[in-house]
Amino acid sequence: MFGMAIKQIRIRKFKESDSAMLAHMFEDFQDSIASTDDLHELARKVKVARSGYGMIYLKNKLMEIRRNRGIFYVAETSEEKIVGFVIAVVRELTKIDRIEQKRPMITGEITELYVDKSQRGRGLGKKLMKEAEAFLRSKRCGYARLWVFEPNRRARDFYRRIGYRDRNILMRKQL
Q: Whose CA is closest to 137, among 170, 108, 115?
């Protein structure tokens, strides 16, 4: 068996000292998504790393968490290596939501989920999602939503297995 048993990995809140490691993980995350891009429009790791993308993206996510009563959990090995993360935020009801929805509810949104390749298929993604969902429940969210890149079939299948269903579909045409 490769990797580490899931029980040896703990989930904890983000700390500022995690920033450098997470910046690299965001670059790997972007590269992973770009590798599934059938239109070849997303930048791959070489370009992304040179741009400082990881740190810029991390700072943007931390601002979003502060603005939207969110949480950032990391999965850490006993050697203090981060092997995954999840970010969840609370989306408050708008006036339009209150009119359009039969039963208006505060919405939770999972904005990021990433598991290191060495840990995939071992239950870590599910464990991170359960933590994020518990946080959203504690904030009185009626449901959780997320966006997933359409070509990323593995992620779409994972989310379906843990109970998420397709709701909106973004369609696009090149002009």
A: 108
**CA atoms of 60 and 55, how far apart (whole Å):** 9
Residue from 73, 69, 79, 66 nearest 124 by CA: 73
Tens-place pLDDT, residues 43-95: 665 566 567 888 999 999 999 999 999 999 999 999 999 999 999 999 988 88
Contacts of 41 (CB under 8 A, 6+ apart): none
User: Which residues contact residue 173 at a Cβ distance below 8 angstroms, ignoring those fewer than 6 apart?
Assistant: none
N-term to C-term CA, the chain: 49
How many CA within 13 A on the CB side of residue 55? 8
Q: Which residue has the tokens 């601002």?
A: 63
Q: How many residues does the chain have?
A: 175
Helix (H, G, I), strand (E, B) or coil at 58: helix
Distance separating alpha carbons of residues 5 and 53, to the nearest angstrom? 31
Domain 10-161, CATH: 3.40.630.30
CB-based contacts of 36: which residues, under 8 Å, 6+ apart? 149, 151, 152, 153
Residue type, 57: Y
Lowest mean pLDDT among 29-43, 89-103, 157-171: 29-43
